[in-house]
Amino acid sequence: xxxTVSGVVKTERRLNGQALLITxxxxxxxxxxxxATARALEAAIDxxxxxxxxxxxxxxxxxPTFSAGQDLKAAAVxxxxxxxxxxxxxxxxxxxxxxLIAAVEGDALAGGLELCLACDLVVATDATRMGIPEAARAxxxxxxxxxxxxxRIPYNIAMELALTGKSLPAEEFHRMxxxxxxxxxxxxxxxxxxxxADIVKSGPLAVSASKAIVRRSYEWTDEEAWAKxxxxxxxxxxxxxxxxxxxxxxxKREPQWKGR
Length: 260
Fold this sequence. Notes:
The structure is a single chain. The chain is α/β, with parallel strands linked by helices and about 260 residues long. The chain has helices at about 35-50, 70-75, 110-115, 145-150, 155-165, 170-175, 190-200, 205-215, 220-235, 240-250, and strands at about 5, 10-15, 20-25, 55-60, 80-85, 85-90, 100-105, 110, 120-125, 130, 165-170, 180-185. The protein is built from 10 helices and 12 strands. The chain is globular. The mean pLDDT is about 95. InterPro entries: ClpP/crotonase-like_dom_sf, Enoyl-CoA_hyd/isom_CS, Enoyl-CoA_hydra/iso, Enoyl-CoA_hydra_C.
């Protein structure tokens, strides 16, 4: 396991160097985001994207809180938690092309929930509450919560959360399909890494293609999807890995992926 520290964001390689654990490391500010934290997370996401050995990333927060969202003290002096290229919190506008798993300890409210919405999979604890409380404070959730949440949970529930500002326990979000796993407090990272290990077993090109197609599926009609999916699927299905997967199945052994 190797570790690097970049100010307020820490990265560690796990699963034999195939997974990147990214930790927001501002527990004294409940892992809230100012500009420096957003830029540090963007740099960590860029590191993840650029390294072919890294297949999946897990995003978590140091201490008992996942993230409190925007650092309001920083915002009061004009220091917003955004980076130039990836946008809010250094990930919201341009998430990575490879899978990103949120490992949520404590609550995920406001920007904390919107950070989860920038991830592909979510692991939370039985003590976690989630919501977008901005309207109750005369604010508007502008980190993707108002247009991403209705795509991940039923419309009327998303609308209730948006208009009332109330939160729900992670178990409810699990029942609605937004949270993949609910685990006891203190076990979110471990459970997220177990989920990451399952992803690592799959072909890397197929994983990237599958994520790309699923993410864009909301934008396509069925008629469009038949043709447009091939832009992402073709490089995977024409790869050496596809032939290796077929051989491994026939030979009843574990495949050896090369990512090409």
